[in-house]
Design brief:
Chain lengths: 286, 78
Amino acid sequence: MKNRKALFITLGIVSLGLLAYCLFACIYIQTRLIPSLEEIPTQIETIGNLIIPALLVTGIYHLMLLFRALRSQTGKFIDSVYIVLIIISGITLLSDLTLLNDIGKEYALWDVGGQWAMVYAFMAVHVLTVVWGLLRAAKRQPGLAPLKESIRKEGMSLSLYQIGLICGILGILGVVFAYSGLVVPNRFSVLFSILIAGLALFPLVLFVVYWLIRLKNIPAREWLDEKQLVDTAFAALIGFFVAVPLYVVICILDVIQVQIPVSAWILGIFFVQLSVLSSVVIARNR
Amino acid sequence: MKLENNIRLRRFMKNEMSQQELADLVGVSRMTIYSIEKGKYVPSTVLALKIAAVFELPVEEIFTLPQNGQTEGEHHEE
């Protein structure tokens, strides 16, 4: 057990070192990659290519963090925040590669400042995730007994709604952000909002899949107990009542010729309902 | 709708049984037992019978209607 913890912490420190390399490599490349360069120099290309294995190792560490976090769930809200952070950070590791690839192709013709900003923002998320993982690993007592199955099952049910709430809030913020015109020009808002919504929803989808896998040997009628079912039904009703006035507002806006993009209101109402449903269930379990 | 109960007392009388142990025995979550004990949730007949079976008592010795015999939302016409 001690060896496993030492290995885990060592890999965490290595990941942190590799992320520091990625960060400095990005800063170096950004300063050297000027539009007047006709071809990317070999030195910059080599430095850039080394980011790939560095992110790969960090990705493996993210998987370890995720499995560890899922194994020790007790339904604490902070644990759910941590799980969402790991998943989003893991997914954005892939985005880093895509963004850096795009920068390499577009630097000479287009302004790539927005892409660089996203790369640095994602790097900050990776560093936060790895540091948090290290702190949790260092704090954790070795030799703790594994959680009882019933406690874990209850913790998972509660985590499901906590993750739903976090994803719902992230989704609402994402949609508002996408249509604010701050990040991307308005002509890309639809595509960007769908991407952000997908990113916000991904942790929940992944957690639902994990939850279903854990419950695969249990009959569906026993996935939630009777109070959990009542809580969910009540929360769904509240979610419905919250959505109705929103639909009315959208109809009125349409009548008075104020156009709201379809993707904006569909995603917006979906994330509002998800947030309301999740928060009502959480409130009834306090 | 309200339903009073003495589950907490019964648990202590049965070797200080924890909420989690009772929850495991009747197949619900600990939070459900906690909510029933606090009177926040009224259990189904099946669950009430299961809880009574754990304490080897008739269900009416664990669950009782409030003393005025009225449940919320129930109106008696004079």
